[in-house]
Amino acid sequence: MTARSVARATQVVAVSESTKRDLVELMRVPEERIHVIYPGIAADFQPVGDPETLARFRAKHGLPERFLLYLGTLEPRKNLLTLVEAYARLRGQVADSPPLVLAGARGRYYQPLFARVRALGLERVVTFPGYVARDEQPLWYAGAEIFVFPSLYEGFGLPVAEALACGTPTITSNVSSLPEVAGDVAWQFDPRNAEALAHLLRDVLADGAARDRMARAGPAWASQFSIARMARAYAGIYHLAHTSARTV
User: Fold this and answer.
1) Rounded to the nearest 5°, which phi and psi values hold at 234?
2) pLDDT value of position 236
3) N or C: which terminal CB in the chain sees fewer CB atoms within 10 Å?
4) Percentages (nearest 5) of helix, strand, coil residues in the chain
5) Average pLDDT for 39-54
6) Angle of helix 158-165 relative to helix 208-222, nearest 10 degrees?
7) Does 198 score more than 50 pLDDT?
8) pLDDT at position 246, please?
9) How far apart are CA 65 and CA 96, in angstroms?
10) pTM listed for this prediction
11) Which domains does the chain have, with CATH numbers?
12) Region 204-217 average pLDDT
């Protein structure tokens, strides 16, 4: 088999339609060779029905009964400065808004985020618990009143799918791959617009019925991102690649 025939037989997997578009536009990969296979969510990302379990979890980590959550690396791409700006505006409008918890390991260039929290006088209501162990991540999602993921770019956006699977009302960006993960279930906003996010946070916090609807709809929507479905899709791609290699 020649190198040219191997190239024709090669199949490329993208984790989202957004990533597929990037591969076509930026890498000039032929569209017909790209197959979108969404990542799978582990089975333990699910609603927590026992209030005592959540109460013990909150007590362990010193968390209040109500809090807003971001979970992910603290780095510029995650757009956390916009989230902090929006939260400051929310506090100006609704003084008793739940605290904001920015959970996750420190990535590159995180210092401006800490400095902005101090400059806005939010040190008492914006907390940084640091790295979150994998086995406790479902409890962090399930314990939050709202999960906020304002990222500017994601190949897929697994935290959004995980939060929805846990039944957590979710707000995320309307760019990159995130609308694919959010569907019609999570609320979306322009990630460059802190005012729009502040208004959305205020509206979602004030609408318990809407949060309840999302808590019910989220797990059903997220069920499409199963590990079993992902595995079947990859098996199909391997079979296609093998068949293609034999016929070129």
Assistant:
1) -65, -40
2) 87
3) N
4) 50, 15, 35
5) 95
6) 110
7) yes
8) 60
9) 13
10) 0.92
11) 3-40+227-241 (no CATH), 51-222 (3.40.50.2000)
12) 97
Asked if 160 contacts 189 with a C-beta cutoff of 8 angstroms, the reply is no
170-173 β-sheet, strand order:
126-130, 100-103, 68-71, 146-149, 170-173, 187-189
**Residue 178 near residue 108, CB atoms below 8 Å:** no
CA atoms in the 13 A half-sphere facing the CB of 195: 0
CA distance 48 to 76: 31
Token match 């997220």: residue? 222
- Structural contact between residues 187 and 211, judged by C-beta atoms closer than 8 angstroms: no
Answer whether 171's CB lies under 8 Å from 201's CB.
yes
Q: CA-CA distance, 236 to 234, in Å (whole number)?
A: 5
Token output for 158: 């697994």
Q: pLDDT tens across 71-92, in order?
A: 999 999 999 999 999 999 999 9
**pLDDT (mean) for 116-129:** 98
Pair 87, 122: CB distance under 8 Å? yes
| 130 three-state secondary structure | strand
Q: What is the residue whose two structure tokens read 């609704």?
A: 94
How long, in residues, is the chain? 248
